[in-house]
Amino acid sequence: MPDGDAAPRRATISDIAQRAGVSTSAVSYALNDKPGVSASTREHILAIASEMDFAPAAAARMLSQGRTDTVGLVLRRDPRFLANESFFMELIAGLEIGLAEQHRGLLLQLAVDREAEMAMYRQWKAAQRVDAVLLVDFERDDPRVGLVGGIGLPAVAIGDPSLTGGLTTAWTDDATGIREAVRHLHGLGHRSIARVAGASTLAHVHIRDEAFAAECAALGVRHRILHGDFGVELAERHTNDVLDDADDPCTAIVYDSGLTAVTGLKTARARGVSVPDQLSIIGWDDSLLTTVTDPPISVMSYDVVSYGTAAAGLLGALLAGREPAAHLAGTPTLHERGTTARAEAR
Amino acid sequence: MPDGDAAPRRATISDIAQRAGVSTSAVSYALNDKPGVSASTREHILAIASEMDFAPAAAARMLSQGRTDTVGLVLRRDPRFLANESFFMELIAGLEIGLAEQHRGLLLQLAVDREAEMAMYRQWKAAQRVDAVLLVDFERDDPRVGLVGGIGLPAVAIGDPSLTGGLTTAWTDDATGIREAVRHLHGLGHRSIARVAGASTLAHVHIRDEAFAAECAALGVRHRILHGDFGVELAERHTNDVLDDADDPCTAIVYDSGLTAVTGLKTARARGVSVPDQLSIIGWDDSLLTTVTDPPISVMSYDVVSYGTAAAGLLGALLAGREPAAHLAGTPTLHERGTTARAEAR
Fold first, then answer.
1. Does B32 touch chain A if contact means CB atoms closer than 8 Å?
2. How many CA atoms lie within 13 A of A92 on its CB side?
3. Quick one: pLDDT at residue B7?
4. For residue A179, is it within any domain?
């Protein structure tokens, strides 16, 4: 044999047709999942192709055309935490709606840290596992922008366009959203507001920080920001820290997620602080979770599922050869429920 | 050119090494994501390989070895509903934990119906998109068992082994679980119990139905079962139907999910029916959702994340050439919270 480690001669479509007792067209229909053969014939043909270790046309086409019809998404999250954070679940649901229309699948992988995430993109590119990737959780000077550019991996960013280095981007206007939250609380008479925020390294947290501080300053509202990790433990501790501060009693807290807002409500109640009579609470990202508490939680809300679908649409356009500009997928607006009321002195 | 539609001669590793000014070993390390080159050299090499349209070794290896390191999961669910159903989100999280250890990715795709789901498996097999699939939502005489066997697609079933046709199976003992729920309610004096269930075509719903009816009969408890679709609208209607029945007032309802139990609690409260004083409620599958209501909901609970991880483990064993038997990943047990109490006449 000319090639030392080559397998025996590869089966051809004719070999399969002969063995299955059908035409080569029928084999081709079956292998490419096209109409023209019955379901039972199709399965018979696929079974024989499999027995003969046939390297199917689609795999060969993938090599020559470099197409996988698969889009990759790496999440750098604790998986136990993931299931409780409705944002990612709704985003994935929205992506699936958009990708299903394009007949593309979503390859989902968790990574423990940034290095593992970067290695995944290199590996996916090297092995032609995906046609493109979706990038989430942007940080300032995010190294992924340079990486995907350097290795020629098409990417759509989900994040603020000021931080996605010119990548095609779907974003929501968080700055406008948090300004609305502050203005609403100010209108209710709140003059000292805390923000229990996510990790300060995350770009959208930083954007909310700046807009929150600026709006509070403009309205003469005292403010403080406590950075956490979107987890329950830190949200509880930070809520207690805010409520322990006797020198400057905050009358309202704005949380960066639904889960942390629910935690804040529970923490306040456990201390005997009445919500909303003594403390107003606003969460972020609407979900079932914030509607089933008593009282249900006022949130800055936008349609995360549609956000995901919009991102998938941008990705389809990108792969079709267009380079769409940044797409504003939504501006969070206040859904007032039961946790916001006029400020009372605590 | 001998081949009519062939591209120009494919670039080799030597071509890339020459252009990048590095050794062929360095190119090989970079393309296979192995240590031995710096991150910047790796990116330089990958960029050049990409420019030269290099068909990487990994893709060629996939063709010859038929390995993708990818596992497929098709969900036949409304995506807008998916984000609210914590079971699938936790299952996916658990799968990701197990698959990450195996360096495998999860290809996730939604399908509108059973036909679309079946077509997806054929297509994945024909195009060698996945090494194996995970099957969920088993029905009686499920046609997927025959399909994956027929086309030679390795599969791990997540469902009761009585219905998965001899496939390697991860399961939870739902029959034992629901019997415990009935016994507990009987012990609290409940003598008429309703079950607001999922779709009757689903195997695990049927298994719970039979065990529920048998246990009620054994204890002399009157019972009724109302089948729905795990959605909010039907859960509300069925709860109202149960509460409207003046001839045989139920004092307890067992729901098939967390979302439907939360809906039941809201529906009862909207009618002025006090939970748990006038009506006891038990949900299924623990999640944050059932803990943040007031009162928090008593549930039949097991660790869904671990269930997913166990299924991923079985899949790894299957792909390593073993054929693991059915694996009992958990038996739901009652987590009593605030929605169960002694029966009072309504």
1. yes
2. 30
3. 37
4. yes
Given CB atoms, is B123 within the 8 Å cutoff of chain A? yes
The per-residue pLDDT for B9 is 52
Mean pLDDT calculated for residue range A122-135: 90
Residue B346 within a domain: no
Find, among A72, A109, A130, the residue nearest to B312 by Cα: A109
Q: Tell me the range of A3-17, A23-37, A67-81, B61-75 where mean pLDDT is highest.
A: A67-81
Our count of domains for chain B comes to 3
Shortest distance between the Cα of B43 and any Cα of chain A, in A, equals 6
H-run or E-run covering B9: none
Query: CB distance from B78 to chain A under 8 Å?
Result: no
Average pLDDT, chain A: 87
| Interface check B79 vs A, CB under 8 A | yes
- Are A291 and A200 in the same domain? yes
| Cβ under 8 Å to A: B residues 220-249 | none
Residue B74: inside a domain, yes or no?
Answer: yes
> Which residues in chain A have Cβ-Cβ distances shorter than 8 Å to B70?
107, 129
A85 with A153, same domain: the answer is yes
Written as one letter, the residue type at B300 is M
Count of A-B CB contacts under 8 Å: 205
Whether residues A50 and A87 fall in one domain = no
Mean pLDDT of A318-335: 88
Tokens of A298: 């006022």
Count helices and strands in chain B by DSSP H and E runs = 14, 12
Between residues A9 and B115, which one has the greater pLDDT?
B115
Asked whether residue A111 falls in the same domain as residue A149, the answer is: yes
Q: Are residues B145 and B110 in the same domain?
A: yes
Task: Indicate whether B6 pLDDT > 80.
Answer: no
Contact B53 A44 (CB under 8 A): no
| Alpha-carbon span A148 to A125, nearest angstrom | 9
Nearest CA in chain B to A108: B106
Please indicate whether, in this complex, the C-beta atoms of B110 and A122 are within 8 angstroms of each other: no
* CA–CA min distance B280, chain A (Å): 18
Set of chain B residues whose Cβ sits within 8 Å of the Cβ of A20:
none
Tokens of B63: 């063709």
Cα of B306 to nearest chain A Cα, Å: 10
Shared domain check, B50 and B18: yes
Which pairing describes strands A298-301 and A333-335: parallel, antiparallel, or unpaired?
antiparallel
Say yes or no for a CB contact (<8 Å) between A84 and B287.
Answer: yes
Q: A123-137, B14-28, B159-173: which range is least confident on average? A: B14-28
Residue A222 and residue A105 share a domain:
no
- Calculate mean pLDDT across residues B246-266: 93
CATH number for the domain spanning B237: value is: 3.40.50.2300
Residues B148 and B296 in one domain: no
In a domain, B335, yes or no: no
Exposed / middle / buried, residue B7 (Cβ in 10 Å: 0-12, 13-18, 19+): exposed
pLDDT at B294 over 90: no
Other Cβ atoms closer than 10 A to A236: 18
3-state SS class at A70: strand
Q: Which domain holds residue A242?
A: 174-301
Q: How far apart are CA A137 and CA A201, in angstroms?
A: 10
Whether B217 contacts chain A with CB within 8 A: no
Positive/negative CA dihedral, B163, B165, B166, B170: negative
pLDDT of residue B83: 66
Here the CATH number for the domain that contains residue B30 is 1.10.260.40
Q: What does the alpha-carbon distance between residue B190 and residue B199 come to, in Å, rounded to a whole number?
A: 25
- Compute CA distances B35 → A35, A123, B38, B214, whole Å: 47, 12, 8, 61
